[in-house]
Input
Amino acid sequence: MTINYQVVMDTLTSQLGSQAVSNDPVRRFAWSTDASYFRIVPEIVVHADTPEQVKITLNIANAHNVPVTFRAAGTSLSGQAIGEGILLILGHDGFRNIDISEDKTSITLGAAVIGSDANMALKPFNKKIGPDPATLASAQIAGMVANNASGMCCGTAQNSYQTIKSAKLMFADGTELDTGCPDSKAAFSQSHSMLLAALTDLAQLTKNNPTLSARIRKKFSIKNTTGYSINALVDFSDPFDLINHLIVGSEGTLAFVNEVTYHTVEEAQFKASAMAVFFNMEDAARAVPPIKGDSVAAAELLDWASIKSVTGKTGMPKWLSDLPEGSAILLIECRANDPQTLVKYTEDVIQKIAHIDTERPTEFSNDPVVFGQYWAMRSGLFPIIGGARPKGTSVIIEDVAFELQHLASAASDLTALFHKHGYPEGVIYGHALAGNFHFIITPTFASQDDINRFQGFMKDVADMVINKYDGSMKAEHGTGRAVAPFVEMEWGTDAYTLMKQIKQIFDPSKLLNPGVILNDDSLVHVKNIKPCPIVDDFVDKCIECGFCEKTCPTSALNFSPRQRIAVLREIERLEQSGDKKAAAEMRASAKYDVVDTCAACQLCTIACPVDNSMGQLVRKLRTPYITTTEQKVLDFQAKHFGAVNQVISTGFDILGIVHKITGDSITNSLMKAGRLISKEVPYWNPDFPKGGKVTKPSAHKPGQKTVLYFPACGGRTFGPTPKDPDNRTLPEVVITLLERAGYNVIIPENTRHLCCGQMWESKGDFKNADAKRDELIDALSKQSDNGKVPIIVDALSCTYRTLTGNPKVKITDLVEFMHDEMLPKMTITKKSNVTLHQGCSARKMKLEPKQQAIADACANHVVLPADITCCGYAGEKGLYKPEINASALRNIKKLIPAETKEGYYANRMCEVGLTQHSGISYRHLAYLLEECTR
Output
């Protein structure tokens, strides 16, 4: 049956609205990848924020026989979060409920809740959720359940299968079921009695087959996510228990997961870690079985290749370079709820491995700084290898599992396969207690020979894992497409038949994520492989993991850095293939999503495990779009910036007067008319500030220290907004505050003319940007007597960019100066409630703790609105692309308690946007400290 996707698109749009549905070629391509090595372009992308939207999508899919793939955060590594037909992505606002039971023994989580956010909610009660995958700070609950994700500590005892209590589900036909609600189960028993009967019969059939039952129990005694969780068929008899546990690890092929209730687990309060260094992998592996038990919470095994890859890297132990070739490390952690038990555990471990020679003494440390370095070594493996790989190569992480007695020989066999197939860079590490190895290779997929080589490698891996050791081809990353061809090989015909029956019972039309877990194509794991063409040094290391998406201010508007990079890679692939026309068309179509709307805040760089900088690349990509006329304007602005700055300030004063006389409607119309003449005319905002001014300091007092204070562009250009309770400009307040703290204040000569260059850099004009920055540094150096007078800058982004010029004098941001020099010496009268913004510049400069300390010193209660990272104003971009700011701050108003009437940050343009969308005044922290020290 041929599917008319235009009809499907029209139907979806009519019922869901154009904002939730897209078949735009660029946006479809952008969502064609997850963290795996596959790429499949969907026909339609739907963003769903409510169960009703999911139901509508499924109803339309059923009517037109369209396959549907569910996607959460897209951090999966096996290709299970991409697919043809409709790609239904959890939206950016819905499915985010967090409800903790009164006794704290369970937590109910919406599908889109990020794992670390769930743990943050449970932290005050010394509880957490069981699963602890490495992607916990990015992965969403629905995906963690769908993959039965585990991690370093949870093993097989605290994964989703073991800790799930109930779930709200939606089946392929749109029927909803809450397995924790008696009424819902009763209704489902009436409407789907045949489904329940079929599951019950299948479970009984399995139990009646002792050989098959024994095999299932044996296979799940170690980590295993190959195929469905058919251990449910031997563990449970109640049909709703069966549904609960079959959904775990089903990768979106059986039902949509709307909500999950987990049993919580204890979070130990005391921890200690040790690095046991062995002379070889065999000895390290021999140490694992004796220590398995209550004493050890986690044990991570690192082979010699892993050790070599991190040796000499920043933050790694220096003694690694002294280890003999072939060494192996077992990183061991003990946890307890009291110090005495912790000591008992550590002594127990040391005693149990005392019979095995080690390269250096095994000593436990309970110092977070020390054991933090140990675990940084483990967590740093993937980003270090990913970042160091040759350009144009991919990164593939596979995970397999073996019974503990086979660990050493399996590691040796796997290393041999690396060399046999031309992957000498391969490294092995993993969760030793669970017999779980991860291995990383960095193959090239530039030719069919490359793909054939990878195919041969995976065939040999499967033969070794399955036929030699009866292990798991997938331990915790899910089957996906990566090992779908090996499911029957691993499980045998009887078990595979069970899995096909499960799929038939839940999804008889086979519309949900087809081709994942069960696939008759023996080569599906080497098809639809995404290429990795060289684009630019700023992003070529990207592994498309999706860690950037949580922090990106434009994720909900259109793209995150991952999607932008995916599109840029495709444009480059088209160029390299010789299809210049297609490349040009895609580049033009993608300009708004990729170039124009990136805030270039660089929060993605902070989140990125391989230090990509999409923000810097986007600025670079803007350079070719600067026309000759625009360049002349930019040159003029740079040369005459003092006058330009003054004109802008005066212009905003005039604009305020016009608005006061004519009102919103006429002012907005005038601004629209102005934009037809020049794109330098901003969109109207009723909260636009008045013009700013630079105030002269008071006469110097003898015997006082002197500081050189530079009022950055934002604060001297833009004064108070209509919502601000204080009519003074930032420079006025800062001077008052500094003088109150006992400082004489100097303002740089020709202040209006000086600038860090940010406004030019954001447009891609690096020549003027760097010239202005260097000019500022020279002026500050001279007027501070080469740094003898402390230099203070009052805008975080300005300070940050100025520091990129590597000035020879010390330049301090006002936030840091207030915290370090002023706060200790001032008497403070606290306010009741304030809200604080921890923006991108604060994060890049690592000044969040000092911002927080100032706010805490000045207020009894400080609100940090959840998930508000970058405000999206992006310097002056908020004036011309207000949709970025609106999207980034779309939820801020509901996150601020009604009793909180004032907010603070340390960047004027950000504060203007925050004021507009929060409905309360946002100003520099200097205003707060000044008011509280009067």
